[in-house]
Amino acid sequence: MSNGFLNQAYGARDPASTRDLYDEWAASYETELGENGYATPGRCAAALRAHISDLTAPILDFGCGTGLSGLALRLADFTTIDGVDLSADMLNQARAKALYRNLHQVDAGESLSHPPGTYAAITAIGVIGAGAAPISVFDMLMDGLASGGRFVFSFNDHALKDLENEGKMQSYLDSGAARLVFKEYGDHIPGIDIKSNVYIIEKT
Asked: Which of 144, 194, 185 is CA-nearest to residue 47?
């Protein structure tokens, strides 16, 4: 099986290099991840489906890539999904799937433009960690939720090695700013023997 870009995906890089990598990867991204059994989008969508009642409520898919996460959310019966991503080429792949209500390209570090409460849930599926978005986006995404909003995210084995990542989530839980709704360790990309934690936290 091919894993040429996967071999590069977890290296440290600046935002411009990250955008370049994902632009170059866009055409073969789904084939490569499919060959390696990418499981986290389906796990995140199933977890959210079990913990939210209104399947028509808007969801923001942050770091939506080619739309694999949006497809998983659609297959879990969510109907109103917006997506944002750094990579124009990834977004072109997502746009072709006709899964999203709106798609928008963002720059690294750009604040979310919507008022808190616009979305019932924000997802960051396979997004935060080495070679992708820094943990600083965690605060931005939590700021984009109103009380009662759900944040669905994952940390793969590489991200879990950096204690700052789970430490950021724990700081919200310890302060009472959020409560943990769901946490499960399981397959991420079995073909390269990587697992992930899937989480849902609710903003209080």
From this structure: 185
Give me the sheet containing 178-189, strands edge to edge. Answer: 102-105, 81-85, 59-62, 121-124, 150-156, 194-203, 178-189
Instruction: Note whether 74 and 95 are within 8 A (CB).
Output: no
Write the pLDDT tens digit of every residue in 21-30. 667 777 777 7
CATH code of the domain in which 35 resides: 3.40.50.150
Q: How far is 105 from 83, CA to CA, in rounded Å? A: 9
Q: Which residues pair with 62 in a beta bridge?
A: 84
Q: List pLDDT tens digits, range 78-119.
A: 999 999 998 999 899 999 999 999 999 988 778 888 999 999
The answer to whether position 1 is within a domain reads no
Indicate whether 37 belongs to any domain: yes
Domain that holds residue 39: 6-203
Residue 169 located in a structural domain: yes
Q: Quickly list DSSP for 3-16.
A: -TTHHHHTS---HH
Give Cβ neighbours of residue 98 (< 8 Å, ≥ 6 apart): none
